[in-house]
Amino acid sequence: MPKTIDDLIAESEIRDVHVRFCRANDRMDEELMRSCFHPDAVISLHEELDVDAFIALGRTILSQYTATWHNTGNQLVEVDGDAAWAEHYTTSSHRIAADADGPERDFIAQGRYVDRMEKRGGEWRIARRTMVLDFLRTDPLSPGEAGLGSTGGKRDRSDPSYTLRIRG
User: Fold this and answer.
1) Which of 89, 88, 117, 84 is nearest to 7 (CA)?
2) Helix, strand, coil proportions of the chain in percent (round to 5)?
3) In the predicted model, is pLDDT for residue 9 greater than 70?
4) What is the Cα–Cα distance from 155 to 67, expressed in whole angstroms?
5) What is the reported pTM?
6) CATH classification at residue 43
């Protein structure tokens, strides 16, 4: 069956939720993170968490890194009225500072976010998310490799992605 314009709009809005989720992680923006989930959402990691517990866990985990970068790849979305199934492939990079365990290094996770999306009050958000981890690796950095050579990202609202946004 051909997709309708409404289906295509819904798919775009659902993909936007996932991109906001990636940004919320990297900027450690809890307000933006919360906007991705319905208040009663359930997030399945190693256990099932509510939104507050998930955000608190994310804050604890992400604060261990000097930088993170979440990227989305393949995105499949199937819309059925005000509900949808979505699968987003992701690669997440996490910069670890040099410490007793070794030199500065990148921890790379690759997996998928499998979501039940629901449109409530005219807004698509995640109602249930299962995070599927497919691959993990840690890559040590060579001396001099860690330098950014340009404007470094910030893990808060002072990042250029916030400060350079056009507001009207």
Assistant:
1) 84
2) 25, 45, 30
3) yes
4) 7
5) 0.86
6) 3.10.450.50
E strands present in the chain: 37-44, 48-49, 67-80, 83-96, 105-120, 123-140
Domain that holds residue 36: 5-144
How far, rounded to the nearest angstrom, does the alpha carbon of residue 104 sit from its chain's CA centroid? 23
Query: Is the pLDDT assigned to residue 56 strictly greater than 60?
Result: yes
Neighbours of 128 (CB within 10 A): 17
Query: What tokens does 141 get?
Result: 């950095």
Do residues 105 and 139 touch, judged by C-beta distance below 8 A?
A: yes
The answer to the question of residue 154 being in a domain is no
Confidence of residue 37 (pLDDT cuts 50, 70, 90): very high
Backbone angles phi, psi at 37, to 5 degrees: -120, 145
Task: Supply the pLDDT for residue 144.
Answer: 62
Supply φ then ψ for residue 20, to 5 degrees.
Answer: -60, -40
How far is 152 from 165, CA to CA, in rounded Å?
17
